[in-house]
Amino acid sequence: MASTFVRTSSLRFGGGQPRPAALEHQRKDRWWLSPLLTALGLGSFVVYATWAALQGTDYHVGQLLSPFYSPEIWGHSPHALFGPPPSWLPWPSFLPFSAAVLVLAIPGNFRLTCYYYRGAYYKAMWADPVACGVGEPRDEYRGEHKLPLILHNVHRYFLYGAIFVWFFLVHDVWKALWFPAAGGGTTFGLSVGGLLLGVNAVLLWLYCTGCHSLRHLVGGHCDEFSKNPVRFGAWRFVTSLNKRHQLYAWCSLFSVGFSDVYVRLCAKGVWHDVRIF
Ligand code: FES
């Protein structure tokens, strides 16, 4: 069967006109604003997250652990699951050890392959297309049926990994609620940092639960929901969150980045984690 993808250069634009040149358009609105903000937002996050993940320091203070470094499989903080990095761990000598490097591939690739982010950065980062009715810099549409973009199909597996990581973030929130007591032991309480980690865990849950792959997982391959009301209820719930997937994608991106900034500045002594009660 012939490919359904065609060279758009062979098509005539509406009314028999040739297709517009790159960035050519007749739109009167500020069509460039959305892709510009997307490029700035995503670009800033990627630069900051890469820098923060490579530091390997100032990622914990008191009971607080930066979400970039969770779960801390091996590391030098009290949060490390298996203690300091073992000598047999292959680690490039030119790079300071960082626990974040061991885990960030899961949430990073989860977002990279997210259906919403794909649409957003295809437009904002390589103008494919930059906006509706605006000329593209290339005349061929290859879709996602070839390497490398076909690899986006692994998204569902990163979803499973992200859910696994999310449970550790919830555990971090729980740990953040227990403070050293004056006479020894611990006492229950809440600080601004603990509140931030809690809000971050909720936003990440809203983002993960609205995932298109999860929606297919709970409601796909089911022609008659009436035969399975549990799946129908789950599908409706995921669908209700899926409608705001873009909102939760950005809110959770901001919360995870700001949680790291907060913990980092507290660890450096610039800010102090204020206890609410
Ligand atoms: Fe966005 Fe799965 S589609 S997280």
Compact description:
The protein is mainly alpha-helical and 277 residues long. Helices cover 48% and strands 4% of the residues. The relative contact order is 0.14.
Explain what you see:
The protein is mainly alpha-helical and 277 residues long. The protein has a domain at 32-100 and 149-268. Helices cover 48% and strands 4% of the residues. The chain is built from 9 helices and 4 strands; from the N terminus they run αββααααββαααα. Helix 1 (33-55) packs across helix 4 (115-126), helix 6 (192-209) runs antiparallel to helix 9 (245-267) and helix 7 (212-219) packs antiparallel against helix 8 (229-242). The longest helix has 23 residues, at 33-55. The chain starts with 32 loop residues before the first helix and ends in a 10-residue tail after the last helix. 26% of the residues are buried. It binds FE2/S2 (inorganic) cluster. Residues 114-116, 155, 159, 211-213, 245 line the site of FE2/S2 (inorganic) cluster.
Strand order of the largest sheet: 1-2
Number of strands: 4
Instruction: For the record, give the distance between the C-alpha atoms at the N and C termini, rounded to a whole number.
Output: 67 Å
Range of helix content: 40-55%
- Please state the overall shape, judged from the principal axes of the Cα atoms: globular
Low-confidence stretches: 1-12
Mean pLDDT score: 91
Rg on CA atoms, Å: 23 Å
Number of helices: 9
